[in-house]
């Protein structure tokens, strides 16, 4: 099964083309709190990531990556932050107000 980016409005898939474009795919963190932060950042209603869910590198800042190794990794603790949302969904600041640490 191919890996598709889980971000709303993004159809990037792990394949030869995206590889050529330098797009990398990153699994959701195993840590519950971090995983919740990623899920909240995606703002997809009823979306529950599984262990194979990935987000592509388009949704991270360039400084979020550790490119010192052979493979491009995300730095510890970063969350995806770059998304294209349709106008009525984009409310700046909403993510910061989500109760990520409750329950
Ligand atoms: Zn993507």
Automatic annotation (TrEMBL):
A Pfam family reported for this protein in Swiss-Prot or TrEMBL: THAP
PROSITE patterns, per the entry: ZF_THAP
Cross-referenced PANTHER family: THAP DOMAIN-CONTAINING PROTEIN 2
Annotated InterPro entries: THAP2, THAP_Znf, THAP_Znf_sf
Keyword Zinc-finger part of the UniProt annotation: yes
Domain THAP-type: 1-83
Keywords: DNA-binding, Metal-binding, Zinc, Zinc-finger
Record keyword Metal-binding present: yes
Top-rank taxon, per record: Eukaryota
Protein name in the entry: THAP-type domain-containing protein
Organism: Anabas testudineus (Climbing perch)
Phylogenetic classification of the source organism: Eukaryota, Metazoa, Chordata, Craniata, Vertebrata
GO MF terms, alphabetically ordered: DNA binding; zinc ion binding
């Amino acid at each position: 099964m191919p890996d598709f980016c889980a971000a709303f409005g993004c159809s990037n898939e792990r394949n030869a083309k995206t590889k050529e474009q330098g797009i990398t795919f990153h699994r959701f963190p195993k840590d519950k709190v971090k995983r919740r932060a990623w899920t909240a950042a995606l703002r997809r209603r009823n979306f529950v990531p599984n262990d194979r869910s990935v987000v592509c590198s388009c949704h991270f800042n360039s400084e979020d990556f550790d490119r010192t190794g052979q493979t491009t990794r995300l730095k510890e603790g970063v969350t995806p932050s770059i998304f294209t949302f349709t106008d009525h969904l984009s409310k700046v600041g909403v993510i910061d107000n989500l109760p990520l640490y409750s329950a």
